[in-house]
UniProtKB/TrEMBL annotation, chains A, B:
<dbReference type="GO" id="GO:0006508">
    <property type="term" value="P:proteolysis"/>
</dbReference>
<dbReference type="GO" id="GO:0046914">
    <property type="term" value="F:transition metal ion binding"/>
</dbReference>
<comment type="similarity">
    <text>Belongs to the peptidase M32 family.</text>
</comment>
<keyword id="KW-0378">Hydrolase</keyword>
<comment type="function">
    <text>Broad specificity carboxypetidase that releases amino acids sequentially from the C-terminus, including neutral, aromatic, polar and basic residues.</text>
</comment>
<dbReference type="Pfam" id="PF02074">
    <property type="entry name" value="Peptidase_M32"/>
</dbReference>
<feature type="binding site">
    <location>
        <position position="266"/>
    </location>
    <ligand>
        <name>Zn(2+)</name>
    </ligand>
</feature>
<keyword id="KW-0862">Zinc</keyword>
<keyword id="KW-0645">Protease</keyword>
<dbReference type="InterPro" id="IPR001333">
    <property type="entry name" value="Peptidase_M32_Taq"/>
</dbReference>
<keyword id="KW-0479">Metal-binding</keyword>
<keyword id="KW-0482">Metalloprotease</keyword>
<keyword id="KW-0121">Carboxypeptidase</keyword>
<feature type="binding site">
    <location>
        <position position="296"/>
    </location>
    <ligand>
        <name>Zn(2+)</name>
    </ligand>
</feature>
<dbReference type="GO" id="GO:0004181">
    <property type="term" value="F:metallocarboxypeptidase activity"/>
</dbReference>
<protein>
    <recommendedName>
        <fullName>Metal-dependent carboxypeptidase</fullName>
        <ecNumber>3.4.17.19</ecNumber>
    </recommendedName>
</protein>
<feature type="binding site">
    <location>
        <position position="270"/>
    </location>
    <ligand>
        <name>Zn(2+)</name>
    </ligand>
</feature>
Length: 503, 503
């Protein structure tokens, strides 16, 4: 028996060595990505593209080589402990998806998305959907083909969705987004009809430098680990890295200091998840974050459930007042209102409030699902888009630039990604409700600027597991329940009911 | 014949694809290195080390795989054009060095240098050579073993030297450094005995922020291509990157604004070489810089032959005066003297002037050569070091911290690297002399702040060839002569003779 155990260990160690190498290559590629977005001079693009494709090809080859397949087969027939089994499960998933799709198709998709990006930009600039339409059609076709290689017997949209959220199931996504639509459409309608006008105390100009100091203040306040991170600016804010080095980016709009601040808090949530992954599992799935739903829940719980709470502003408003004279005399109530105001005529997802946000997601979800399932044609998209905005949000875009061309994702070939934004917000509310139950006076702690208990709760219930559990099991483990939209709906109904004086 | 040509092309294309992949992996590793020195938070080290070793192992495996050997064999038996032959020649060299050394030895050296670094630091801090001595002994032994694997019939120091300068030959290095010693020792002696005291106009405090603006001014003045580069600070200034993205770092000492400025100009020289490599050869040796002698000649020619010239300061002094009120009223002559002052009691290489600098190199060169050749023991180093300083520079270190422990290089396992510093300066003077002959009134152009002709001369004679020529051929091609110390010796004799009023 001892001999057998040794043999197993050797196989597992060999396997783990390969897994870590892949992950190191991917993390190196992540640094190249960060560099490109944040510090790379413009002229660097041609070399950077080649460097990134080389690393991506290498990581693909390492993942799909025959030996990896043999090691997986061998390990799956052996007695593994829970941690080992989880690592094998996650790598098997990646392996299957990577080996089933022919290299030529991956290359064709990559080529087509490279061409799609400038086409999408031009279409948006010139407000002319027909410039982007043929490429979008091609991309839809290629993505359907891609899905067909991975699983010809499955709904292709489901296959694509599972790329971003492998364990919650498309049914959960469909039910949840339908529930959000059905519940939020009347709530948004009520808000529109309410006579209440929330305060907008920031109407001046706020210089970027001071805003950056304020972003640093908020990261300090929330407990960002600067020894393992940094703050920079990027045109499209993101966070990236590993548990040893999880960086945050933000951007500053001189007319909207609150926007930058909330964006910083959002990225803090992502980064603090990454920082909380176990050090000793670096390079294995146990040291990597669960998929997009969980990741987004971490950004949203800090951005919305904490950062847009009255308690948070009681603590943080004085720091804003220190930085911007303008904010002196603004009462907490107004600050709280400003952070939660529903912009009723807003057409743009990235500028949306916590409530209408989900309707932007629902529209794209319904349309991309129908596209990939072959239920509608590309040229029907603009009209359908506008109709849905009218139906769900009570506003109709005048232009496609402000309509179906507003987001970059489709030009990246990303279909199935969007719903995780909403699922993440929903999960955030569920996690917050449980933390609130477990932690003594969480609201009071936030009011006092104390975030340690909440931080620890997230670490102990989510972060430190990496990918040990599947998404559904992780949620069950953390909250004692399955994934549910109940808490989110209660939260927004109560919050916006009070803010807008609805009965 | 047509079929054969196609076959050749296919083989060459396949080979080139492999070469480019290796180079992309190495360039990616270069970005990781830049990031680590410049922006990485301290906590990032454990992950970064693993990422860098993964890339380094992958690039080693790609270089040494059997297929690469077969492709090289096949290509060497075919009719190649000059460019193809140069690429094959350079890759063959790398391949031979990489395949001859067993992986275990590479790993042992890497492990030992990791241990050596903290030992060296501690030894220097505590001024106790005995802390570093055992590790240094081990490193010397491992490096001898390393050299023996590469070529058992060759002087081991020669093998190590060729790692950094493969084509000039150890004889040239030995002769040149002996010539520098023999000629410069009496010249330094004369300077020491001269009654002339050069001006030191900068005795105040100069804030880092303004110094950085001045560094940007000097990069603007010299024609740095910002679209393909950037300036940052790093504890040990360096430049790195590719023709598409060649970055400069510097550091600021508030008591020494000239030091930072000259360091920026030095790194500019390296970066502008990199920026001048041909775009369409990116990823092949024809798009990569020649070895250390040539690289150092590019930094030194800008730092010394341009940046420490009277003409340069006639143009640039007003910009210093704009930035620092202190410099108002400082005449060009004093500025020129300040940039060229010989610090007679200086024991530290990195703080040395253009003249005494080479004695620091000669000392280490003579000692490391004897160590690797087994002619002296490690415990003789401190005494020998101090004796040589007394003999060549007229100063004797009081401590080993200021003596043989001052530089980090040996703890990296770098033996044979140092002489390229001097060879580079020597080559800089040779190139400058030829450019001065070819360009109409170069001195006048520098005085007018016009650097285009000089820049073009360097591009057309050095940069754009990448590794097409070997170092010796490149020099011959650029200057019509073999490598020679004649121009450097004339240059320093004339310059310091005039500055110090020597007959």
């Amino acid at each position: 028996m001892a001999t057998e155990a040794t043999a197993e260990n050797t196989t597992y160690e060999e396997f783990l060595g390969k897994v870590k190498r892949i992950s190191n290559v991917q993390n190196a590629a992540g640094i190249l990505g960060w560099d490109q977005e944040v510090v790379m001079p413009e002229g660097g693009t041609p070399a950077r593209s080649q460097q990134r494709s080389a690393l991506s090809a290498i990581s693909h080859e390492l993942l799909t080589d025959d030996e990896m397949g043999e090691l997986l087969d061998e390990l799956e027939s052996e007695d593994l402990d829970d941690e080992q089994a989880a690592v094998v499960r996650e790598v098997r998933r990646e392996y299957e998806r990577a080996t089933r799709v022919p290299g030529e198709l991956v290359e064709e998709i990559s080529r087509t998305t490279s061409e799609a990006l400038p086409k999408w930009k031009k279409a948006r600039e010139e407000d002319d959907f027909s410039i982007f339409a043929p490429t979008l059609e091609k991309l839809v076709e290629l993505e359907r083909e891609y899905a067909d290689h991975i699983d010809p017997d499955k709904d292709p949209y489901e296959v694509l969705f599972e790329e971003y959220e492998p364990y919650l199931g498309i049914d959960t996504a469909e039910e949840t987004l339908a529930e959000l639509r059905d519940e939020l459409v009347p709530l948004i309608e009520d808000v529109r009809e309410s006579d209440v006008e929330l305060a907008t105390p920031f109407e001046g100009t706020y210089d970027a430098e001071t805003q950056e100091e304020l972003s640093r203040d908020v990261l300090d306040t929330l407990g960002y680990d600067w020894d393992r991170g940094r703050l920079d600016t990027a045109p499209h804010p993101f966070s990236s890295g590993t548990q040893f080095d999880a960086r945050v980016t933000t951007r500053f709009d001189e007319s909207d200091p609150l926007g930058a601040l909330m964006s910083t808090v959002h990225e803090f949530g992502h980064a603090t998840y990454t920082q909380g992954l176990p050090d000793d599992q670096y390079g294995t799935p146990l040291g990597q974050a669960r998929d997009l739903t969980v990741h987004e829940s971490q950004s949203r719980v800090w951005e919305n459930n904490v950062g847009r709470s009255r308690a948070f502003w009681e603590n943080f408003l004085p720091l804003v007042q220190e930085r911007f004279a303008d904010a002196n005399g603004v009462p907490v109530d107004e600050m709280y209102q400003a952070a939660n105001r529903v912009y009723e005529d807003n057409l743009i997802r990235v500028e949306a409030d916590e409530l209408t946000y989900h309707m932007h997601i629902v529209v794209r979800f319904e349309i991309e699902k129908a596209l990939i399932r072959g239920e509608i044609e590309v040229d029907e998209v603009p009209e359908l888009w506008n109709d849905k905005y009218e139906e769900y949000l009570g506003v109709r875009p005048d232009t496609d630039a402000d309509g179906c061309l507003q987001d970059i994702h489709w030009s990246h070939g990303s279909f199935g990604y969007f719903p995780t934004y909403s699922l993440g917000s929903v999960l955030a509310a569920q996690l917050y409700a449980k933390a609130d139950e477990d932690i003594d006076d969480l609201d009071g702690q936030i009011r006092a600027g104390e975030f340690d208990d909440f931080h620890d709760w997230l670490t102990e219930n989510i972060h430190e597991y990496g990918c040990l559990y599947t998404t559904d099991d992780l949620i069950e483990h953390a909250t004692g329940e399955s994934f549910t939209a109940e808490y989110f709906l209660d939260y927004v109904t109560e919050k916006y009911g009070a803010l807008y004086d609805l009965e």
